[in-house]
Design goal:
The chain is an all-alpha fold and about 80 residues long. The chain is built from three helices and no strands.
Length: about 80
């Protein structure tokens, strides 16, 4: 459960920083006037909200855990590209 919450909270910031580094499309790095990464948040919030409406919590937690693993592997592969 902690991994699910950590992945949900961290994924927009990970996408934002990777967009700043040029590893994913630049439109994910756009921020609002208050500094929030709006496009990265929408990329994380919209699919999560749609899945939360139609799927029970246990399968949703499994999907979020898998997406966390994908995000972490994307970050690790980007480190290889940066080095």
């Amino acid at each position: 459960l902690t991994t699910v919450f950590g992945g949900i909270l961290a994924s927009p910031r990970i996408c934002y920083v990777m967009a700043q580094d040029g590893l994913v499309p630049q439109w994910l790095a756009q921020t609002s006037t208050s500094g929030m990464p709006v496009n990265a948040l929408m990329l994380a919030i919209v699919p999560t909200a749609v899945l939360a409406i139609f799927i029970d919590f246990h399968p949703l937690a499994s999907i979020v855990s898998a997406s966390c693993l994908c995000t972490f592997s994307l970050v690790c592969s980007s480190l290889i590209i940066l080095c």
